[in-house]
Specification:
Blueprint lengths: L2 H13 L6 H11 L3 E3 L14 E3 L1 H13 L2 H9 L2 H13 L2
Helix pairs in contact: 2-3, 3-5
Length: 97
């Protein structure tokens, strides 16, 4: 098994956990510098043949920074949002609008 396959398998296994949201997918994307399709509602990685929202490294980095800046109460609310809505709110916060 090559190195990329190991990383994909580990990330997909971690994303299959019911308690994992899009923040874990975003952190994986930032660490590995790769865009991945993420389920709009659950935040889990999508299989290669399925469609989800494409989460790129730049947006994933923004989501992680916004999430890390929030207090615990707001983190729980933020991570429950669908990934597309969280990204829209995150960009508003980053832009100051």
């Amino acid at each position: 098994m090559n190195e990329d396959a190991k990383h994909d398998t580990r990330a997909d296994r971690a994303a299959s956990d019911d308690h994992v949201g899009w923040i874990y997918a975003a952190r994986w994307i930032v660490e590995n510098g790769q865009a991945r399709h993420v389920n709009r509602q659950t935040g889990r990685f999508e299989a290669s043949g399925r469609r989800g929202v494409l989460l790129d490294a730049f947006t994933a980095s923004m989501l992680c920074r916004v999430y890390d800046a929030l207090n615990d109460s707001n983190r729980r609310k933020f991570v429950r949002l669908p990934v597309g809505r969280a990204a829209a709110i995150g960009w508003q916060l980053v832009k100051g609008g």
